[in-house]
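Today's session is about reading a structure prediction critically. Students often jump straight to the picture, but the first step is always the sequence itself: look for stretches that repeat, for charged clusters, for runs of hydrophobic residues. Only then move on to the predicted structure, which in these notes is written as discrete structure tokens rather than atom positions. Here is the chain we will use throughout the hour.
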Amino acid sequence: MNKYRILVVDDEEDLCEILKFNLENEGYEVDTANSAEEALKMDISTYDLLLLDVMMGEISGFKMASMLKKEKKTAKVPIIFITAKDTENDTVTGFNLGADDYISKPFSLREVAARVKAVLRRTQQAETERAPEQIVYKSLVLDIIKKKVSIDGEEAPLTKKEFEILLLLLQNKGRVFSREDILSRIWSDEVYVLDRTIDVNITRLRKKIGIYGKCIVTRLGYGYCFEAE
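Below is the predicted structure for this chain, in token form.
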């Protein structure tokens, strides 16, 4: 399974830790924030899903969601509201704000895991359906359908793994992926792969894409990203 990133925002610290522990056991990468104010200082656009409590301090979950939906970078981040309220008006409000699901407290952890999985599956499917056939960066063209990369019209002879790494980085320009992220997404079905394997593939990829090799930047201690010039 891809290592999706989830942000849990709830003013109950114990609940945050319980959700973090259980979702990490499901294979997700999970961060927590104990207020909307704290969460809004984070780069929310890098998360694949938000679990957002409604009843918090000065900035409620509804207000935070409204703020996120107005920003281009965060408008498409899926949101599951978590709340002690269970009234029709609250549910309608949540969905009108663009919520992808709504969970009322108290809830079972199995229910949360199932709903998280369902929302991520729907989101991934929707992204796949509207995914472009090509990704173009200057004279670098990655053809998703034909599985080939060309520079100034000349095809670059990439291996399957090199192609998938470049596709991941190009689809998420500026986002840093750790070696663990890349391993879980590109080598997800293989039992044992060394971190060094990532470095070797990145080195080869840089050479094969010529002048664009310098766009694949190493963030020491963090990982790799494609940085547009």
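Discussion point for the tutorial: The mean pLDDT is 89.
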